[in-house]
């Protein structure tokens, strides 16, 4: 009987949704919801102190502030992304084509990357990993197998953190993704799953 409007799914109420609360708090911290925050409430005073603390620290140190996030945003303010009829030019509808993108991985242009919101991991196939010329001894051991990944259970060769740039200047973002490297045939070079999509805020 419970329904979350944020996730558009059953299992918990919107008011109970922790992820929604975290998103709202993150937006408040970034200053996007400032006009909705009551500065006299305990929560509002706490957020105001959070906003003032970095400024005070910066004045004391007289050094440029370094962001804690690994994200690198360029292009100024965030843009609103909308779609119109113009975006459908040259597209045959209806279609269920997969979303396949090109990203900059460790400064290499990597094509044929599948976007899969159903994947709980970011995957890098061994044939693509080999072309990055990263020594195999840099892979961190992974004990957990991938279940439901293919017909059989797959044991990753290891995991590795790689720099990924999405978009083109001036509108691009850079994150560090943790990929599981697997040695199995695939038409794709990599899969960006939910962890990568969340990092990219896609």
From TrEMBL:
> Positions of the region Disordered?
32-74
Source species, domain of life:
Eukaryota
Task: Tell me which species this is from.
Answer: Cephalotus follicularis
InterPro entries listed in its UniProt record? Peptidase_aspartic_dom_sf
Bias (Basic and acidic residues) occurs at 32-58
The protein here is known as Reverse transcriptase domain-containing protein
